[in-house]
Design goal:
single chain, alpha/beta, 35% helix, 7 helices
Length: 198
């Protein structure tokens, strides 16, 4: 069985302005931290999807064991990056872990707990619940891949989760919901969160 993590790092950063993936974070960048977390987890493989500022990111980040793919259609929304990651995951992929490149606080331990629970239960899909607040990683089993391939635009994965509540399992994590970075204020919050977790 192959479980693949897909890190979405192709965003336009329209609300932030500059490419937020390149923001300094610890000893790497915002995206570099998210990739490092995935690589340090027990996922079988990691795929990173790039779009905007791809050349700069390739020069600035150590992607380690992760495979890097391009999404030339990143301007059409997040779903296009998901599809690029799903294609790269390949035919032997049994489950997909969806991770955000602007959410560096999703630690390897969180990913591993979600992976262990998914392996025990094998639900159609699962979302993490951080003390009652839902967030990434999202997990999708092979049976959900057809539905994923039908998604378009932004927030499409959330809509899919909301459409099938009886098929989605919540994985409880005793931690605060890690902030994602959409604005400079979010970035400052993520830095504080990182320092407190270190």
């Amino acid at each position: 069985m192959s479980v693949v993590g897909v890190v979405l790092g192709a965003g336009r950063s329209s609300r932030f302005g500059a490419p937020k993936q390149l923001l300094p974070f610890g000893d790497t960048t915002l995206l570099g931290q998210a990739v490092g977390n995935a690589n340090a987890s027990s996922l079988d493989r990691t795929v990173v999807v790039l779009g905007r500022a791809s050349g700069e990111l390739r020069g600035a980040i150590d992607f380690g064991r992760a495979e890097v793919v391009e999404n030339t259609a990143y301007g059409t929304g997040c779903a296009s990056s998901l599809l690029a990651g799903l294609d790269a995951a390949g035919d032997d992929c049994d489950a997909l872990f969806l991770l955000l490149g602007d959410q560096p606080g999703v630690l390897p331990g969180f990913i591993d707990l979600a992976l262990a629970e998914w392996r025990d239960e094998r639900p159609w899909a699962a979302v993490c619940s951080y003390r009652g607040r839902l967030g990434h990683p999202f997990v999708f089993s092979l049976d959900a891949f057809g539905d994923l391939r039908g998604l378009h635009g932004d927030k499409a994965v959330w809509k899919l989760i909301e459409a099938y509540p009886d098929r989605v399992q919540e994985i409880e994590l005793d931690a605060e919901l890690p902030p994602d970075v959409d604005t400079p204020e979010d970035y400052e919050r993520a830095l504080i969160h990182h320092r407190e977790a270190s």
